[in-house]
């Protein structure tokens, strides 16, 4: 069974272009298209896609609000923002709304397909141009007074370092000679102890603290 994909973009030419390319991928099944955020929310309820390619600037309801709405009733669906905006004012709200990926429309087609597959597998993917904005935001947030975090175990630190390298659970398991189930447990513990929302924030936390070296 292929990856059930929904495309949400207010420009028909963009939707058609994405549809034309992505339908050539044997593991991707395009189940619908939406021309605004509200329509995307409604289609998610009826079509139950696995992944959504979500534009940000759309009429009726924008991509951030649509992502928030979708995440209130379905935490399993993965949202990938696909937009032309790389500035912090657009990136941060999208990540906070629950997007698992953020790609710009100049992304290479093969990289977009890779992002779709990786995000479905629980990874987080950010376009290189937006990473610095997220890093800056996290640094500003961490400068505020916070309660002490629960320290990580040595093994959790090892897993966090691998997350920072962009490795999947399967790759981490192979690198550390543990099972994927054990990796998932460690990832869950890391997010809980560091009070982070997802792997994207965990990876950025690791980079900020020099654990990616």
Automatic annotation (TrEMBL):
GO MF, any single term: DNA binding
Database matches in SMART domains: HTH_LUXR, REC
GO CC aspect terms: cytoplasm
Taxonomy, superkingdom: Bacteria
Keyword Repressor: no
Entry keywords, A to Z: DNA-binding, Phosphoprotein, Transcription, Transcription regulation
Response regulatory domain segment(s): 4-120
4-aspartylphosphate modifications at: 55
Subcellular location: Cytoplasm
Gene Ontology process terms (BP): phosphorelay signal transduction system; regulation of DNA-templated transcription
Protein name, entry field: LuxR family transcriptional regulator
């Amino acid at each position: 069974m292929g990856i059930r994909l929904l495309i949400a973009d207010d420009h028909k030419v963009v939707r058609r272009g994405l549809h034309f390319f992505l339908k050539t991928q044997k593991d991707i099944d395009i189940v619908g298209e939406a021309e605004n955020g509200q329509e995307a929310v409604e289609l998610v309820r009826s079509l139950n896609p696995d992944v959504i390619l979500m534009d940000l600037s759309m009429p009726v309801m924008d991509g951030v609000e649509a992502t928030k709405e979708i995440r209130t009733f379905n935490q399993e669906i993965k949202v990938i923002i696909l937009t032309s905006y790389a500035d912090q004012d657009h990136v941060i709200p999208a990540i906070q709304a629950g997007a698992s990926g953020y790609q710009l429309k100049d992304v290479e087609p093969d990289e977009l397909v890779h992002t779709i597959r990786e995000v479905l597998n629980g990874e987080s993917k950010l376009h290189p141009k937006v990473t610095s904005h997220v890093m800056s935001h996290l640094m500003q947030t961490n400068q505020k007074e916070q309660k002490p975090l629960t320290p990580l175990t040595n093994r959790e630190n090892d897993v966090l370092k691998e997350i920072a390298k962009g490795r999947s659970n399967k790759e981490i398991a192979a690198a550390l000679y543990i099972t994927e189930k054990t990796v998932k447990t460690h990832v869950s513990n890391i997010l809980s102890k560091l009070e982070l929302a997802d792997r994207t924030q965990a990876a950025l936390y690791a980079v900020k603290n020099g654990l990616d070296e």
